[in-house]
Structures are given as C-alpha cells and as structure tokens.
Design brief:
This protein is an alpha+beta fold and 357 residues long. The protein has two domains: 224 residues, no CATH class; 100 residues, Sandwich (Immunoglobulin-like). It has five helices and 17 strands. The strands form five sheets. Strands 11-17-16-13-14 form a five-stranded mixed beta sheet, with no helix packed on it. It has a four-stranded mixed beta sheet with strand order 4-5-6-7, covered by helices on one side. Helix 3 runs antiparallel to helix 4.
C-alpha cells in the first residue's frame, strides 16, 4: 500500500466517527511511529435490539505529572512528542487504536497471512475488583477480512496480556461474519452450549465480547445476529440470541480502566514511556504507577477527557524512564479511590509489562 493510500485510510478512520471514538489530530505521528518497535462496581444490563448510534468525536485534554514515591517535584513533559519506541494508536469504536501493533500472527486464527494488514480492537475477559469485565488489545488481521479476522482472534487466539482470557476456546469457532444492511451477522460453527464452569456473568460477557469486537472491526454500532447454518440460533452459551442484540452500556461490561498503550512486553527506549487508554474514574482523575516488583518507582495522574460518569473517557500521558536501571517493569493505570478503600471494592487497574533499555 502506498503512503498516499495509508494516509487516506488513516484519515478515513478518524473521519468516520461513531458513538465513542476519541480521535486525535496526530496522523503524522501515527505514520511515523508505527515504524518503531513495540514489544469496578457495575450494574446489570438489559439486552435489546437497535440500530447504529452515531455521535461526534471528542479530543483529548490532559495533564501529566511525573514524580517519585516520596513526592518529589514532578517533571513536566509533552505527552505526545514522538519519543522512544511507543506507537500512536486509533481505535474505531472506543478511543485510540494502533495502526501497526505487535500481536498474534493472523494466520493462527485461520486467516491468510498475505496482503495488507489492519489493526483491530479485540476484546477479552479479565478480572476486576467487582468481577469479570472486558478489556481490549490490538491485533493485526488481513485488511480485506477484518471483521472475520477480528472475531476469530477473539475466539481462538490467546491474548498477549496474560491477565486476559477468552471463554470461547474449545467451545465453538466462527465460520462467517458479514454486514447485512443494518445487522452484523455472525455465523457460528455450531450451537454453543455453556460449559459447566461458566457463570451467567461470563456467558453474557462472552456474547458482549463478540459484539464489541465485531462493531470495532466495522466501525459501526450495529446490532449483532448470531446464526448457525444461516439461521438465527435461539440460545448461545445459554443467553437468548434469537433476535439481533445491541452492545451493552460500557460501564456495565467494560473494565473501568483499560490501557491502549503500551503494549504487553513493549520495549521502551529514548528516556520516556508514553501511555494512553480509557477510564471511568472519579472526577476524571486517572492515577498511574511505574513499578519494579513491589516497589513503586514513579507515580502520578492524568485527567481523562469526556463523560467519565456514563462511559469510559480517553486519557494519555507520559512518564520519564531516564536513569532507570535497564530491566523489566510494570506500568499500571487505575481508577481513583477517594475513599482510600473504605467504600466499594477498591480501584480497578490495568497493567502492562514493559522492558526499559
């Protein structure tokens, strides 16, 4: 694909905004940095039938602070300067997705490994203080079959982050996927019976996992119809699926904080680590920590931009890694807990293992 085609495709991703896109005016940075190396209380939801929801995009405002555990004066840094080996990201239906992330080989999910690749958001289950929730990471799939490729990644490919999991392994596979008018049709290999170990919550999340993944791949909030041999299936994992299903509200199914960057296992050089993600955190404050083992090496917070009270809002920032001993560290973003653990289940967090050179 030529640079001109790349630019048109990337601009298209930013222009075709859907309900919860959070684009940033950083096309040049996206294209430049994709060449670099990348290594919760919630409410029950109501299933429904509906069409796509279209809304405007929001830009990200942030305040980044870098400090030490002892409260030394914070370093002030430009959080979007192209430094180190951190890659810019743009996500079709949530905030920001990577254009060229490292990830599982699409051929592992049965997709052809030739042709141009496209980054897609793939949702997986993970644990939160209030139970299971959905997290997202980015995989590359063939551009001409992004929808089917993304769904197969979600069902038969293990996530890169060991904290995530897919409940579909060994249960069934995806035979087909297509947009048919205003409905997304997902063809299952067989009627998926619920495994004995799977809870009601996990079954419902597994359905939402595929709905969110499919919608991210096509960048439209379309209802999803589950089918076997071209016919609607009455139940999937014990969940009623005879009619098309819409996505559940974000705060009902998504983990309350989810990192977009860095990627799991990412190598960081150049003196700083850039990070981004989405969170629903008290008063839009998103604390972060850089840890080595049990020791907190750096800490600070950034502000998310958007309606944090009803959905996940985008955040981004940067932390200095200059002067750190080369080695393995953990970066964590979390929700703010003004009660100090006195109320609720405590803060949610999402972590990434990084390697500092």
């Amino acid at each position: 694909m030529t640079d001109s085609n790349d630019e048109r495709r990337l601009r298209g991703l930013l222009d075709d905004a859907v309900s919860d896109i959070e684009p940033r005016n950083a096309l040049d940075q996206i294209r430049a940095r994709t060449k670099e190396n990348q290594m919760t209380d919630r409410r029950p939801w109501i299933w429904g039938v509906g069409g796509a929801v279209v809304a405007t995009a929001a830009t990200v405002a942030l305040i980044a602070a870098v400090g030490t555990p002892g409260g030394d004066e914070a370093d002030k840094e430009d959080p979007v300067a192209p430094t180190g080996s951190v890659s810019e990201n743009v996500d079709p239906t949530t905030d920001v997705t990577p254009t060229e992330p490292d990830g599982p080989d699409p051929s592992e999910s049965g997709e052809p490994a030739t042709g141009e690749k496209q980054a897609v958001g793939v949702y997986y289950l993970g644990d939160t203080p209030s139970g299971a929730g959905l997290y997202r990471e980015f995989h590359q799939v063939p551009e001409e079959s992004a929808l089917l490729g993304a769904l197969r990644e979600a069902t038969v490919v293990e996530p890169a982050d060991p904290d995530y999991r897919t409940p579909w392994l060994g249960v069934m596979t995806i035979d087909s996927a297509e947009v048919d008018g205003d409905v997304l049709r997902i063809g299952l290999s067989d009627v998926a019976e619920r495994p004995a170990r799977m809870t009601d919550r996990e079954a419902e999340l597994a359905i939402q996992q595929l709905i969110y993944t499919a919608q991210a791949a096509v960048q439209q909030r379309l209802p999803v119809q589950f089918e076997v041999s071209g016919n609607p299936v009455a139940e999937t994992l014990g969940v009623p699926t005879s009619e098309p299903l819409t996505q559940a509200a974000e705060l009902d199914v998504l983990a309350l904080v989810s990192l977009t960057t860095p990627a799991e296992g990412q190598t960081v050089s150049g003196g700083r680590l850039e990070f981004s993600g989405r969170a629903s955190s008290f008063e839009a404050t998103v604390p972060w920590q850089l840890r080595q083992g049990d020791e907190v090496i750096r800490r600070g917070s950034v502000m998310s931009s958007g309606d944090w009270m009803t959905r996940l809002a985008a955040f981004e920032g940067a932390v200095s890694v200059a002067g750190l001993t080369p080695g393995t560290y953990t970066f964590a973003a979390m929700t703010d807990d003004p009660s100090g653990g006195a109320e609720g289940n405590g803060p949610s967090e999402d972590t990434r293992t990084i390697v500092v050179k």
